[in-house]
């Protein structure tokens, strides 16, 4: 039990953080208006596309290699709308008075087919469908009232309703992204027991829930993505982190569950990783801020299957890069996004997220999906809020970004209610939409969904991947994962199948892989050798005098390495097909005293703060050199680089 002083701290932090981090903002009143059907000029959502989806550089593509832009919205409710106080049976105890009944919102007011038709009419081609871990295990049937407009769902559990929603969305041609939004079925996102993937359950239980969900929809090709967790943030005592290797390490947790989903449940899914939403205490003078995707620049994911990683981020005008979004208690003097000038906003957005798509040929290059953004609708009269939304939409258009509006569905009564949703239904089933003539967002929304951008075939690009055995194995090869441990007791790093090692850090254990120039280089029949000594250094072939040289045999290339502490312990050499690599001479690339990566190296800074060595694009690494002399820690000092032909 906490002391009285500790209890006081908890109370203060909860008061500061709970209202500050909740999104979206409080509901705005909607003036009286005429209810009519949605008349959209937006493009049809159900255009032909072939699953599964994958990525090529910064683009998402379908099975034919054609760009598939996620023009998405969030259909919330299954993750919970209860605010956590009072009875969950009372509508007033739910966010904006909208009681979802533990299922996607609006099924009490409109038939599912009508709701989905509304999505298509406003230009949506995909839906982010939040769920809670609690929903998966909730055996209580939904109430008849919660599915009043969909009586066939009476007696169903929340998961069975979720199944039906997935089935109907995908049957209409829409793509569905599963989103683990909360642990418990309640409104997100404050100090509420949902701050981290393991805030209210163990990491193991969270991983098992993801494997269950990925397997459940494995036979439905239009279920295209796994959005791993929503708005990872600080709880009362602890911040999440990106790479420290502890129980709060979001990088490590998302890397591990992403690989497990691909290898154990469904290899076709996109793995979607959101950045960190908040760290620190929102009080002037205390460290605090919204890291978002900034840590990705120096530590990025390398999944076991290349072409499956998508990053995501959220932006709302009332929050800011160092502003939690609070008013009153918990409000700091930091600017909100809506306070920034257009130039400042562009700079901040690019720094926090859009650099991932803007910079090609980096270890972090990937699609970025802005999976939440939104603003009050008819009742929003604030000039700053309106200007921010217009500017943000302009940035999405300018960057040709994938996006998902929050939320798609809301309630209204007599034209009044939560104005954030794009589509609203009243208790009688009458619908209001953005094209009814009184929603100021209609112009910006049309501009967004009708924006021209990259379309058609996207040519394959070279993959660049980071290896980071900082705290544990980092084996990104399906083949090596299936084989016995090739260096017991060491931390092992292996490139994804089809890539070769091209760079190493002098210290810090980081590596860089790619398939640049050569494409997949390994022998389809497999074959590898673990090298721990100089047996393959020929007489007269001392390419690093005074150093121990772990050299691959001819016809092999470096694809991984083992480390113990900071020291190199082994080199993993993969076999190339006969005639695949014929060069037997090479050059030594020293990087023990400075960077040595050539002019204009690709791949990015894969070992930030450390010296790095890198072979040229038309070379492969065939050896690692290090020294065990006094004062040395046995870290890599040189690479032996050979030409591919």
UniProtKB/TrEMBL annotation:
- Highest taxon listed in the record's lineage: Bacteria
Pfam family name, one: Cellulase
The answer on whether this UniProt entry bears the keyword Hydrolase reads: yes
Show the segment(s) annotated as Disordered.
Answer: 74-104
The leader peptide range reads 1-22
Q: Where is the Glycoside hydrolase family domain?
A: 111-406
Its keywords, alphabetically, are:
Glycosidase, Hydrolase, Signal
**Molecular functions (GO terms):** hydrolase activity, hydrolyzing O-glycosyl compounds
Family as reported in the entry's similarity comment = Belongs to the glycosyl hydrolase 5 (cellulase A) family.
**Name listed for the protein in its UniProt record:** Aryl-phospho-beta-D-glucosidase BglC (GH1 family)
């Amino acid at each position: 039990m906490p002391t009285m002083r500790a209890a006081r701290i908890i109370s203060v932090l909860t008061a500061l953080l709970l209202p500050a981090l909740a999104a979206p903002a409080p509901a705005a009143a909607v003036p009286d208006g005429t209810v009519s059907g949605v008349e959209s000029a937006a493009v049809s959502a159900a255009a032909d596309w072939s699953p599964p989806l994958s990525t090529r550089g910064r683009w998402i593509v379908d099975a034919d290699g054609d760009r598939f832009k996620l023009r998405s919205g969030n259909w919330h409710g299954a993750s919970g709308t209860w605010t956590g106080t009072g009875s969950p049976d009372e509508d007033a105890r739910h966010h904006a008075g909208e009681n979802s009944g533990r299922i996607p919102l609006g099924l009490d007011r409109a038939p599912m087919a009508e709701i989905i038709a509304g999505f298509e009419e406003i230009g949506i081609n995909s839906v982010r469908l939040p769920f809670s871990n609690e929903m998966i295990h909730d055996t209580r049937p939904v109430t008849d009232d919660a599915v009043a407009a969909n009586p066939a769902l009476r007696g169903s559990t929340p998961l069975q309703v979720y199944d039906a929603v997935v089935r109907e969305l995908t049957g209409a041609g829409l793509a569905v992204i599963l989103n683990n939004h909360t642990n418990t079925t309640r409104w997100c996102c404050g100090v509420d027991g949902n701050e981290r993937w393991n805030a209210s359950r163990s990491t193991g239980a969270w991983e098992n829930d993801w494997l269950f969900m990925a397997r459940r929809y494995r036979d439905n090709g239009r279920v295209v993505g796994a959005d791993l967790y929503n708005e990872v943030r600080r709880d009362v005592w602890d911040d999440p982190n990106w790479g420290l290797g502890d129980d709060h390490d979001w990088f490590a947790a998302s890397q591990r569950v992403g690989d497990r989903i691909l290898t154990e449940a469904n290899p076709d899914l996109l793995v979607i990783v959101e950045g960190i939403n908040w760290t620190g205490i929102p009080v002037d003078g205390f460290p605090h801020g919204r890291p978002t995707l900034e840590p990705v620049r120096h530590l990025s994911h390398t999944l076991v299957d290349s072409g499956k990683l998508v990053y995501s981020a959220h932006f709302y005008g009332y929050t800011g890069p160092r502003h939690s979004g609070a008013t009153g208690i918990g409000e700091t003097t930091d600017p909100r996004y809506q306070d920034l000038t257009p130039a400042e906003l562009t700079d901040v957005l690019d720094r926090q997220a859009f650099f991932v798509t803007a910079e090609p040929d980096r270890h972090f290059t990937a699609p970025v999906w802005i999976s939440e953004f939104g603003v009050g609708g008819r009742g929003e009269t604030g000039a700053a809020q309106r200007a921010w939304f217009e500017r943000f939409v302009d940035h999405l258009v300018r960057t040709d970004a994938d996006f998902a509006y929050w939320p798609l569905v809301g309630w209204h009564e007599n034209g009044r209610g939560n104005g954030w949703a794009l589509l609203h239904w009243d208790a009688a089933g009458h619908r209001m939409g953005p094209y009814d003539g009184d929603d100021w967002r209609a112009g910006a929304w049309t501009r967004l969904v009708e924006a021209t951008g990259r379309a058609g075939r996207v040519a394959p690009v070279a993959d660049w991947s980071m290896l980071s055995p900082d705290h544990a194995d980092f084996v990104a090869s399906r083949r090596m994962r299936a084989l016995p441990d090739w260096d017991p007791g060491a931390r092992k790093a292996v490139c994804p199948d089809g890539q070769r090692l091209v760079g190493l850090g002098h210290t810090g254990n980081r590596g860089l892989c790619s398939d640049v120039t050569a494409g997949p280089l390994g022998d389809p029949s497999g074959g590898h050798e673990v090298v721990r000594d100089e047996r393959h250094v020929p007489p007269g072939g001392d390419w690093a005098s005074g150093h121990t040289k772990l050299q691959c045999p001819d016809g092999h290339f470096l694809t991984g390495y083992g480390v113990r502490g900071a020291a190199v312990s082994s080199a993993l050499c993969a076999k190339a097909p006969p005639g695949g690599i014929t060069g037997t001479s090479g050059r030594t690339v020293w990087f023990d005293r400075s960077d040595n990566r050539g002019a204009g190296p690709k791949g990015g800074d894969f070992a930030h703060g450390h010296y790095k060595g890198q072979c040229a694009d038309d070379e492969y690494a065939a050896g690692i050199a290090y020294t065990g002399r006094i004062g040395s820690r046995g870290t890599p000092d040189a690479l032996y680089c050979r030409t591919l032909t």
